[in-house]
Every structure is written in structure tokens, then in C-alpha cells.
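Sharing a chain and its predicted structure for anyone who wants a worked example. Both blocks are below, sequence first, C-alpha cells second.
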Amino acid sequence: MSAKPLDNPSPSIERRLSDINFKALVENRHFYPSPASWSDEVLYFLLLDRFSDGTEYGGFSDSEGKPVTGQQEKRTTPLFNSQTDSCTTDRQAWFEAGKTWCGGTIAGLKEKLGYLGRLGVTAIWVSPVFRQVTGSHDYHGYGIQNFLDVDPHFGTRDELKDFVKAAHERGIRVILDIIINHAGDVFSYEGNQRYFYFQGESWPVSGYRLTSGEAGTIPFSEAPASFEIGAWPDGAIWPEELQSPDTWTRRGEIRQWDSFPEFLDGDFCSLKDINHGDAPRDPLVLQDMERRVTEFRVSPALRYLTDVYRFWIAFADIDGFRLDTVKHMEPGAVRFFATSIHEFAESIGKENFTIIGEITGGRSYATTILDTTGLDAALGIDDIPDKLEFLVKGWRSPGNPDTEEQEGYFDLFRNSILDSRRNHQWYSKHIVTMLDDHDQVGVNHKFRFCGDDARSIRLLPAALGLNLISAGVPCIYYGTEQAFNGADQRTDDNSYSDVFLRECMFGGKFGSFQSAGKHFFNEESNIYRFLQDLTRVRHENIALRRGRQYLRQVSESGLENDFYYPQPINGELHWVIGWSRIFAGSECLCAINTDTELDHTLWIIVDSVIHSGENCTMQCIFSTDERQLGSRTAVMPIYGSAVQINVPAAGFVVYR
């Protein structure tokens, strides 16, 4: 199941966009349709290099539900045993192994579709699959050298197409992680030296590189010069249309990440910035989105890249894109790209093709960019993961509807004066929420949810309950379903800290829990089975997917004057947080307990109109304590209407 040897691309790989017959790609084909609402989906994000190499056996079944055993061909990686396999490697050697390619493949991912489908995943977000700069360590996929080919570490274009087809046959959609802001380190500045952004200067270039770090001996000009020196397929940039010097801004690396226009025109570290077109560069125009969009003029390079991703939709039947580094692109460029892609997708029957933007720079900026550009959703990578994670751990406020401050997690999903939102549903349809991720932008020493403290793993079910059953489009980061605990424990160095977020599911030299040679596809693990049950309940109850959301007041006594929104005391909140999801006259009441030691029984407000009749009750349809399932609680005429429920320590419950 491992990738094919790293040889030259297939002769069928186009060198030029002009060689692609788009009409032939779409004629007489039935493309997989978009979902009615992406709010109904459960996303799963994985780094392809870190997910599966196809050699695992034990603990999981194939797509048909048959157990995968060690007797099968090429099965050499057994299931991880926490009692014997944790911390069995030298930490420094283990860490070094995580800095480069580990061996995950498209073929390995394809054979785990059963594992993901049984988990309840309905859409897989795959890290970039495109061909990386030859000889680089860009296992993450964000350093592209050929936008029209799959990196041979991962497999082939046909394997990608086959994987998407197999996913669709299981009812699972595929979102591809894409980049238009930059390419890999494909050319060398003069003298093969690092150049940095300085007052908008364009710096001299030696030439395109043959391989990673090479001095730049390929002429920095349009083809056919690149052919004459043998750049195909390992050197320069492809497709050929991108080889024009005008493709690049050539202004050196960004140092001031929030300085305009440096963060737009500079290189993303060593990754080379692409010129999307002309736009105003007067700092006074920074906040004038109308001018920045209307005065933007599209470059040929942006048109070429738009055609590149139209090709991938048609070739592989892709269902959505996750667009990288949106902050570092002009809004006009993003708008042009999103409009063009949406129109193409609609023309082949994908009426709700999604484009999810990675938009750093704050929630207010993200909402403005979404409104301006036509992106469908933003990743919740600003303060949303922080508020979600540390609310569950007892260090953040859940919010307070009695104030206008956006201090807590639930404040993000109600009317917001700060963000000028008029609709309480806005965030629920346009934000992707997740606990862990592969970057953790703005965090120096990075760690997964379970990596900071022994107490955290007990709270993981509550955190996943909050993530999947509160508003937004939920996303599970690979390994979280197996309680991965990657954490940077260093104090004097934070370089390569993101490596600790990217352990291998399939073992190798960089398995989670500081292990090697053992895989983690355990369908009997507690968290995996918890998520199975949770995604099923979510699927069966539309209110839990699309319902309006309200943080609820609680009370220990049930007295009329004793209801309140829980708030931290001396910075800590180890208590019950309850919220309702309401849809078309149906209410689901959800609650987590951030106290890891004690169960808590208390009263929680519910909707008095929905529960206006006599003898109303609510039934427990989900609980981390199975003994509660099916039990009923009476709706009492207290403070409007309220129910008394018990929430287990570090637990999560849903009543309907």
C-alpha cells in the first residue's frame, strides 16, 4: 500500500494548462452533488504524510467491515498498546524523525475509509497532495513545485481520483487543501541568499532551482528555456505558464506579519509569493474593502491558478477547498478566485461547493473578508479554539448574554455589535470549529488538547461534545479520536514546535505517545466509540446540526432569583455549562461538566413556549453515563420553564 518509487511523473501529466481539454473532462459525466447544508457534515482533517501507509493490522476493519489481520500481505505494523509501547523511543531521535517525510499515502488513506465512515465522518479534509519541491522536507504539502501533479511520496493522480470515488461510494465527501498565495521555494534570489521585505523593493533573482536549495541555474524566464536545461519534471515551476518572471512579487521574506502591504507582497518564509494582480498600496486604503476590490486588476498568474483548481474539481470530483493563508492575499484576488470556482462547480452540478478560508487576523477581519470575497466559511483559528478548549478545562467564561462583551465561547454565536452581525445564525453556517489543528497560529510551545495535563484526557469527551453539538461546522483533527497527546515540553526553544501536533497514526519512527512502529486505528478505544455514538445522535437530530443556540442559566436551588450564567471565580470555572439548540419548535438541551471530580445536579432553563403544555418532559438521548440514557425529567414552571438534570463529572449530556 506504500507510495510508488520517486520517479518522473507519468507522461500523461500536462506541462501546460493549454494542454488540458476542460470540455472533455466534464462532458457526459455525473459529478457527486454537494450537501444541502455543510452544517450537517462532520469534517475530519488529516495530514496525508502522517495518516496511513497501508501496512497496519489489528484493531480496525476494512471498508466492508472485515477485520484486518497480520496474515494479509504487507501487514507489518501492529496496534499500539498503551501499557507497553508508550515512551519507548529516544525523544530527540523521535522528534527529529517528525521533521521530515514519514510515509503516509493516498492508498493508505483509501483503505481507512471504513474506519472514518464508522466514526461518523462525512467529509474528509486532506492536506495538500501536490508535487513538492524536489528534495525538500515539505511533507506538509504547502511548498508546491507542480500544481498539476500529485507528489510521488503520496501516490499518483489516478490514486487520488480512485480515493475520491471510493469516498463518494461511502457517502463521504472530500475537501482538498489548496494554495494560491505562494509556491514552494522554486527560485533563488541573487547569490542564493535570503532576502527580506524592505519598503516594497523587488530583489534580483539568480534563476529557478533544479532541486531544493540549488543555486538557481535554470533561466528565470518563460519556457522553452526551462526545457533546454532539463527542468522538467524536477525543477522550476509547473504548469509552464507560471514560469514567467511576472508570476512573482520577488520582495523577500515577511518579517512584520501585520505590516501592510508587507504581509501581502512578501514571501511566506522561504515559500515564494505569487503576484495576483494590481491593487492600491496606500496604507490609508487598508480598511477600504470596496476600493481594494473594485480597483483590483487580476494578473495572468491568478487566472492560471484558477484554471489549475478548476482542473482538480473536474479531474477528481472534489467537493470543496480549504484555501490556505487568505490573510496574505488581496480581497479582490480571493473574490475573483471564489467567484470563478463557484461558477465552475455550479456548472457541473455542485451547487454548494464549499471554499473554507484560513483567515488569521481576528474574527472581525474574518467576517469582513467572508462578506467581501464570497468565501463560504472561515476556520475558527483565531480565539475560537482557545475559548472552546479552555472553557472545557475550566479557565474561560462560557459567555454572558446579559452583556455586550464577547468574552466567552457562546458569545461568538449570538448577535455581535463588535462584528456587526445582525443574524444569530451567521456563525453557525460560516465557521468551522475544531479543538486541535496542525498549526496553532500564535502559540509558541504547541500542544494538543490532551498534551498539557493528565486531567485533560478525562475532559476530552466534554470537549468533543461541545465541539460537535454546539453551533458551527465541526471538524475532528486526526488522532484526537485516539486521544493523541503531542506536546512541546521544551522551555528554551520553540523551533519546529508544530511537529508535536503532527504525530503519525501509522507508527513509523514518529508515532504518538513517543512511540515507534505501532499504529493507532483502534475502533474499540473509548474516545472512538464515544464519537461514534455522538455523531449518530447528531445525525438523527436536526436541531443539533442546524438549531439556533442559546446559553442557558443554571441554578442549584431552583429558586426564581437564583438562576445565573456560570462565570469563573478567581479565574476558574469547574461547573456545569448548559445550552439549547432549537429548530422548528424542537429543543435539545445540552450540558457539559468541567469538574473532573464531582457529578452535579442542578436546574437549567429551557424554552417556555416549546414546553408550555402540562406534563411536559425531556428525555436523555445521550450521556457519558450510559445509565442515564432514556431517563426523563419533568419540565417545571420555574423561572419560565426549567428542568433538573444530573451531569456526570467531566461529562456531557443531551436531553430532547
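Comments welcome. The first helix runs from residue 22 to 26.
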